Amino acid sequence: MLLSPQGRMQAAEEAVAQLREALDGVGVVLPSLGVDVVSAAGTYGLPLVELGRCNLDTALRLAAVLHGKAHPE
């Protein structure tokens, strides 16, 4: 399925919103989370999601959440 530029951007924005909501649900905030505008301007594939930069505390909390999901007690 080939999406229009508007459809590509909408799909990327929806993915970012879902990821932001899921991360928020486990207490992790990535302040720079968003759509990578350079890839969104392209015509091949879907745009990339920019996870961005985060501080050490956020990185450790994210790692703990992921580790907990990978190795449930």
Could you explain the architecture of this structure?
The chain has 73 residues and is mainly alpha-helical. The protein has a two-stranded antiparallel sheet. The chain has helices at 5-25, 37-40, 56-70; strands at residues 34-35, 49-50. It has one domain (5-70). The protein starts with a helix and ends with a helix. Helices cover 55% and strands 5% of the residues. The relative contact order is 0.17.
Largest sheet features: 2 strands, antiparallel
Helix fraction by DSSP (H/I, runs of at least 4): 40-55%
Portion in strands: 5-15%
> So how many helices?
3
> What is the 3D shape?
elongated
Number of domains: 1
Secondary-structure content class: mainly alpha
Strand order within the widest sheet?
1-2
Output mean pLDDT: 87
Order of helices and strands: HEHEH
Rg, rounded, reads 14 Å
Query: N-to-C terminal Cα separation, in Å?
Result: 40 Å
Low-confidence runs: none
* Number of DSSP-assigned strands: 2
